[in-house]
Amino acid sequence: MIRLEEVGCPVDRIDFRDISTDPGNAIERILRGIGVSTDDVESLADEFSFAKLHQGNPHYRRGNPDSWQEELPDDVIRGFEEKWGHELKTLGYSATT
Description:
Elements: H1 16-21, H2 23-33, H3 41-47, H4 50-54, H5 68-71, H6 74-90
Helix pairs in contact: 2-3
């Protein structure tokens, strides 16, 4: 995997935890990063809130960034960590098993 930091590109990581805990800030960071006006950040945060997305769409299960730890079997988590453990650590995520 090529990391953007390694090729000298500016990076602002935004993950699900950022979006679920502070959607307005995450959306503002995305818009600023692509050079788009941030005037409507609050209305966008409301429009794409978990509560609205979850209505009638079972794909959005709980809106909790850590729920996968309770839902995935241990062997699946171990396999994921074996394959992607280095990337997880680089991104600041700790091992879960």
